[in-house]
Design brief:
Layout: H1 2-11, E1 20-25, E2 29-33, H2 70-80
Amino acid sequence: MIRRTLQTIQQHNPQTLAAGKYEIQGEAIFFNVMEGETRDINAQQPEFHHQYIDIHLGAGSDLPAGAAPPNVYARRAVAAA
């Protein structure tokens, strides 16, 4: 499912799209094109999503992308508090 979704996003060529929400399978699967400034990864707070997967990709950049199971993020958040 994730591989197919990423392939569909790539086929839409998101670097050329205006900022906004683009549905793949209605509200179940969609992607957002957003503009913004990046921040140092060490200054970021984790996001928690229990009902969906949220993948962030830096379009046209060499920014790192990563993911971890929810319990890893929870441990980091508790350790930072």
